[in-house]
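Why do we care about 3D structure at all? Because function follows from shape, and shape follows, mostly, from sequence. That is the central idea of this module. The next example makes it concrete: a single protein chain, its amino acid sequence, and then its structure expressed as tokens.
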Amino acid sequence: MTKSIHALMTATMVVLLVSGAVGVPNAAAEDSGIGRTPVLGWSSWSFLRAQPTASKMEAQARALQQSGLQEIGYKYINLDDFWYQCPGSQGPNVDQYGRWVTDQSRFPPEGDTNGIKVVADYLHTLGMKFGIYVTPGISRQAVSKNTPIKGTPYTAAQIAETSIKESNYNCHGMVGIDYNKPGAQEYINSWVDMLAGWGIDYIKIDGMQNSNVADIKAWSNAIRQSGRPMVLDVTQGSYTKAIAPVLMKYANQWEFAPDVECYRCEKHGSSYPLTSWADVAKRFDYVAEWQPYAGPGGFNDYDSIEVGNGPNNGITPIERQTQLSLWSLGAAPLILGVDLTHLDPQDVKYLKNTLVLAVDQDAIAAKRVLNSGHQQVFAKTGPNGDAIVGLFNTGDKAEKVSIDTSTLGLPKNERGYSLDNLWTGSTKKTGGRISATIPSHGVVLYRVKAL
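And the structure:
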């Protein structure tokens, strides 16, 4: 989700656990053939914010490739807000069919080729995917001009519900669409057809609320009719678990939490520090509460991974391991928010830890099996029967965190278990108890195997 610049400047199936056993992947989302595992990539919002350009997007893509992260699966380069013309509060400028117009000063065309498509084509030559940002509704400019809806006899004014103000955080001027009106679905179809023609692979629709269920369905239907596989990412203005069944059926990922960026921490007009421990720690309850809704094809999105820029991340090295571990246990999209052109070597090692990455890419959302004081434990059972367990300490001092293997659903085994530490690479043996002394704000992430 993206906040207003003013605000920035001023401050599968649901798993039933038997005897605490951790479960299997949930069934989620209409099977579009994509999004079977969580997306890996990068987004422009955290670092570039209001200043994305074609050259900056291409530079970030090259840096992603040169870092070696592309080789292990990071392939989405996602353009967030500020790619379109916004003359004022009357809403984004629109083309002859009521769709947003590319800001050519940021994304210059090449001949007759739209500037967004120019970037998409370049990224595709690198073997990457390209995502873009939209918000629900229709621009007031389309309504006032009463633009035709492509391929139909209908117009913008006929489908608009001007009494409903939709969320567009930085440009504003978006109003609702009445999907009971003829031409409404066709309008969204024309939008997606345009994006498909530009080579878009991922659509983030931001500012969504419980009242936007019809928009979710319309954008999903439009993607299917376009014939181009595209990830649909639904991010919030404010929505609750009440629409989780709709998200699971129609979307590939969904973000319901407040932004992870620490806007209140930033200094001197910089986007640094990107986040804070307080903003990361809020996610523990979200990961627990939304666990039943994630599975292959549809995943809970806990917002950007702020690991890559060393001290400018705003979190310590230990906290960076915690963020990556929690997101991975939750099978969340890992979308980097950092400046890829200035990567910290130690952070790159964290991001390249394929043992941890495999925890994310198994597409199984972990269940919280302990929540006591500063101690939290999340666990899940992998496809091969191994248990993955994260022991977390959210307190300000080191604490010993323990849990029984029976709580993880592991069978009784007289020979005991091996504990593979996925961050250190070390292995030790245990009987029926898993324990570790965890540093402040830290984690120990184990793969547990019966001997």
